[in-house]
Structures are given as C-alpha cells and as structure tokens.
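Quick question about two entries, pasted in order.
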Amino acid sequence: MIIKAALTLLALLVVSSGYFVNEAFAEISENQAFLLEGSGFAVTEEIIKISEIDLGLSSQDQRGSTINFLTEDGFITLDDEEFIISNLEGKFLREGKYIRINGEIESSSGFDTSISFFGRLVSESKDASVYGFTGRITTSDDTYKVIYTTMLSSLSKIDTTSTTTDESDNLTLYILKGSSTQGVGTYIEAGTVREQPLHHKVQLMYLD
C-alpha cells in the first residue's frame, strides 16, 4: 500500500514538472532566415497599449545548443507609435525552445528605446512555431511590461556549398516591407560563399 501511494505521488510529480509534455523542438539551424511576427500588450501601472512585433532574423553560429542571431529589419509598435530596429541581437536557446532578444530600437523622433524579451516555445507545426514572449520596453518616459503571442516562420535556406547545376531550380528571396541597406550583414554572408555560376531563377517576394 505504501509502495502504491509512493508511485502515485511520483507520477503526480512527473506530470506537474512537465515531463509528460510533448518534446518541443523548433527547426532552428545556422545560416537561416526567419520572420517573427505577433502582437500583444504593453502595460504600465497607468495604461495598457496594444503592441505589435515584426522582425526579420538571421541565425549565425551555433555553440552547443545555443544559436546566435541578428535582427536584420523590422519594427515594434506601441499603439500608433512605431519603433524601428536599431541594434538588436539575440539567441535561440536549447535548440529553439527559448528565444532571448535584447538591444535598442529607435522611435520616429529619434530617441533610443531598449527592449529585453524572453520567449518560450508553446507549440509548433511543420511550417512554423508559436512562442509566448514576456519582457520589457523601456522608453524615455515609461517602462512597459510586455506580453506577446508570436509566430516564428522560416524562410528559404540558401545552401552556399551546393554545386548542383540544375537550372530548373528556383530561388525565392523574401524582402520585408520597408527594408533598406542599413549596414547589417545578411544571413547569407554568415556562411562561406564560393564563387560559382548562378544556376537559379531568382524570384523576389515583397512582404506586406
């Protein structure tokens, strides 16, 4: 009877600790481009604002289960105020189960604003993953606590080592709305680029 009770208690502890939750694994790898988009709320003791996040990310080098990434382009909003990307960096932790983003964004008036976000993988499909984010946005006037629900979707990964010469292959490049050359390297540059004849038809897709 004591053994049965102990086994029951152990089972409850395992369930409560999350071991029965399905293994979560986001398809994250080096030299890959992603879109992170979603919405939520930014809250102070006085007000609640609707906030949106839309970022283009490019994964870089991997060390253990951590993959660094750069933020190529995008924006974050607080109600009608839009902040553009200034200097953001982040990490995919534990092979994509968690995401950390830190750095600076810039308001339309030119004032720097800092952000610190931490995301947890909630669910995923073969096409995309859903993350829940919490964190802070610190402006010159207030500090907001933020809560987001976001979707992370991968764009076409370019194999810079491929030597295939199949001219029927197509290559699709996705360009974020409002993108421009801002002195930030792309995720393609993170790989080793070999000089080869171009054997792909390139299709440009502009994202609204």
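Here is the second entry:
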Amino acid sequence: MGQTVPGSRTLQRIQAMERLGHEVRVIPTNLSGDTYEDRPSMIQRLRYRFRLPLDRASANEVLINEAGSSKSDVIWLERSVEIKPATLRAVKAMTPDVQLVWYAEDDMMNPAHLSRYVERSLPLFDLWVTTKSFNAMPGEMPARGVRRALFVNNSFDPEIHRPQPADDALRAEFGADIGFVGTYEKERAESIRKLCLAGLAVRVWGNDWDRMPSRPGNLRIEGRPVYDLEYAKAVSATKINLCFLRKDNRDLQTCRSIEIPAIGGFMLHERNDEITGLLAEGTEAAYFENDEELIEACRYWLANGDAREAIASRGHDRIMGGGYRHDDRIAYILEELYSANTEMAPRP
C-alpha cells in the first residue's frame, strides 16, 4: 500500500511484483485523481505539521477489511504515514503469519517524514527496508524500535528507465546541454544560478521552481515535472544530467542516481563515497564536490562529447548488469524477509 499517483515509484514496484509472479492487491493511501501537484488543504497542512496526517482514502479501514477477507503473506507499506499502530495490531491478530514490511526512500530520522502513527508502529514491522544506509545503523532506526533493518540501493523500472532514440524531434522537445529534473530547493537553485552566471545554459523540469527569484536569462524553467517515459526522454536528450542530493534527506544516493545511467544518460552527481562505490568516477559517471567544480566539470564534459558518451555507455552497462531493477531488488528483499524461516516463503 502507498501513494498511487501518476509518476509514483510505488506503482513501478507494484508492476515489478506482478512480473515476479506475485498476486498483488493494492490499497492506495491517496484519493483517485490525486497528483503530486495538488495543494494540500489547510487541515491537511495542520495535521501534517503535528505529524498526524489525515487518512483521506480510509486506508486503515480498507486494510483491516482486506486482512479479514483474504489471506496475504506480506503487507508492504510505502510512505503509508496515515496507517495507525492499532490497525497493524488488528491485522496481525487476524492473520498472525502475515509479514509487515516498510519500504522507505526518505530519511526516517527526520520528523517531517515520520508521522506519530508510524513512530509508534516501528516495533511491529517484521522488516524495515531503507535506501538510506545511515538509517540502518544501530544508532538510528533500530534505536527507535525497528527490530530488523535492511539497507538496499535504489533501483529502476526497466520498462520506463531505458534509452530513448535522441532524434531531432526529441532534442527539440526535451534537449539541453545541461539539464536537471527535480523539485525546487534553495541549495540546488543556487548551484544552477551559478552555472548560468558562468555562461552555461541550463534547462529545469520539476515542481515549485516559481519560488526561484531573479532567474538568469540562460536558465530555462519549464514549470512542470516530467514523469515516466517523458522523464526518460528528457534524460536521453540532455548532454549532461545533473544529480543533486537533498540536504534535508541526508541523501548519499537517490532514485535518479540509478535511473539516469539506466536510461543511458551522462550523469554529473554530487560526490560521496557511497555513490562512487556504485559507479566509478570518471569511468561510469562524473562527480563534483562544490559549485566551482560543478562549473568546471560542465565546461569540460560539454567540450568532450566522445568521452562523455563513453562514460554514459559504461554507466548504463554497469547498472543493467548489476541487479538494480526493481524486480531484482524486490526479490532480494523477500529473500531476506524469509531467510530466518524458509517454511514461510511467500506464494508466487
């Protein structure tokens, strides 16, 4: 269960589970027709601020009814911050053998991502999966009550994140020398501003960029996000794809760290030991430490197209051969979930 709005990675993982042969019943935590671009109501904002989010889709009731009427091996929750501990206890009482899994892409030590409901539910999960390596350390989520934490790298959807033919029509619609796909944040906006002031042209896709003041003339802000195949087209048509990390999420890698090379794009990524351990620097991806290095790197790689394309190709090969598909990741998680008791393996 989780958010099933357009562009959601939850939807991608649902499809991966089905490709693996599992029967999947979906419980959305959003209303039909919701999008990431919807503005929350006043009561939603207040409840979010107090970390008591509204259950607008009645997901608690639906989950209890579903548990009572059907036999499930695993209940998999993604950003289901509305689900209450009483709901999970009721589900466990009705189906004692069901395994509760939480899959987290956010830094759950940040109160903005951890509702009071989830905070009180932490000991109830049989497996807590996180793409944040530090969250799995003993002093973080385990210290808050998580009984069993598993760190996994990010993954991609092979049906979406694949190279798109970069013909003239695609370049005209999505092309850029330097591009970024993502939501506005002050730090990344300032880095992009400095690129533009250095004489480099940048194209940006994503939400909330109307918040950026005094935009340079060579900055093209599209004012809308790109999801799924549009996202793949934008990456394919861009010479240098920037990958900024969210500071409030303490990111060391993000979904784009894997998706961009899977699409075959050249990636210029913020440097840290975790991501350079996944994609070799100067061979499978390029990296930068600060704005000065970012500007220098963009100039260099724009002037060296053959080398840039070779790195993009090797990065693509690395991700395609490294078990980074959602299918691979889910299979691994389920294997780890049942590793302590092979008699309880899930039914395909």
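Reply: The chain has two domains: 9-155+326-344, 168-320. Confidence is low (pLDDT under 50) at residues 342-348. Hope that helps.
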